[in-house]
Amino acid sequence: VQLVESGGGLVQPGGSLRLSCAASGFIFNNYALRWYRQAPGKGREYVAVISSAGGYTNYADVVKGRFTISRDNAKNTVYLQTNSLKPEDTAVYYCSVHLASRDYWGQGTQVTVSS
Question: Is 33 within 8 Å of 97 (Cβ atoms)?
Fold first, then answer.
């Protein structure tokens, strides 16, 4: 199982970024995918989940209405569109999949929101 995140960077408050997570090594369209984030000095925080077919999504309250999770099963990729970014959104963002009784994680992509 391999998960590779990309799309992070430095953005001003109010800006947007589209994060991607390319997956391989498992049957992608059989599994829900999740995004988490970890800010400096804090624990890992749940951000969003999308079901295997994409028909169900759920968001943490702190990102609801600003972030959108989506997936392209033909490309084995899950996305996180982040809008109206705030300094408190600064974190390393990770995608994750739970299969065979364990969680798999990518290496993360850094998002920094600063003027």
Answer: yes
Length of the chain: 115
Beta-bridge partner residues of 50 = 33, 57
Q: CB–CB of 45/94 below 8 Å? A: no
pLDDT at 90 (0 to 100): 98
46: amino acid identity, one letter? Y
- Distances from the Cα of 60 to the Cα of 19, 24, 83, 84, angstroms: 17, 26, 14, 15
Phi, psi of 100 (to 5 degrees): 50, 40
Q: How far apart are CA 35 and CA 44, in angstroms?
A: 10
3-class secondary structure, 76: coil
Residue identified by tokens 């996305």 is: 79
For residue 112, the model assigns a pLDDT of: 98
Per-residue pLDDT at 56 = 98
User: What percent of the chain lies above the pLDDT cut of 90?
Assistant: 99
Three-class SS state of 28: helix
Q: Are 37 and 96 in contact (CB under 8 A)?
A: no
